[in-house]
């Protein structure tokens, strides 16, 4: 699902190679997928996240802004003074409201989880969860362009604790529950 979400977001942005995209919340499963695919499409990627997410983001070629150590808006403006061609928001709330004004065109702000993005001139991702998009994501994975980062594997008996970890929202990549 992270892969199909990433494909949907980038298709909807439709940015040309050489454009610059800000991935707000780059360190999670969807954020890393968006960044990896964007780089594969020739986009320049700047990502925001906490200190623990830096290594994963930089390993795939994204520039990183640590929201725990610096002012995100100021750091982003320093890197991209004229504004971003597109912004993908995976955080929402105050964080979305901080980065949305950094877009050259507010219509190129796409949020995955915050339904209030139209209030800022942006749009909510339109999901295409169908066979064609799932097959496309599978092909991208087979081609090595989508490589999920698995940060933890839990037995089924530990599912409540695993889900609690995900719900906190600070995992790097995916948490897997092993059924067998």
| Structural class by secondary-structure content | alpha/beta
Helix content, binned percent? 25-40%
Number of strands: 8
* Shape designation: globular
Average pLDDT number: 92
Strands in their spatial order, largest beta sheet: 3-2-1-4-5-6
Q: Alpha-carbon distance between the termini? A: 21 Å
Radius of gyration computed on alpha carbons: 16 Å
State the helix count.
7
Spans where pLDDT lies below 50 across 5 or more residues: none
Order of helical and strand elements = HEHEHEHEHEEHEHE
Question: Short summary of the structure?
Answer:
By secondary structure, this protein is an alpha/beta fold. The chain is built from 7 helices and 8 strands; from the N terminus they run αβαβαβαβαββαβαβ. It is 37% helix and 19% strand.
Can you put this structure into words, describing what you see?
The chain is α/β, with parallel strands linked by helices. The chain is built from seven helices and eight strands; from the N terminus they run H-E-H-E-H-E-H-E-H-E-E-H-E-H-E. Helix content is about 35%, strand content about 20%. The strands form two sheets. The chain has a six-stranded parallel beta sheet, with helices on both faces. Strands 7-8 form a two-stranded parallel sheet. The model has no long low-confidence stretch (mean pLDDT about 90).
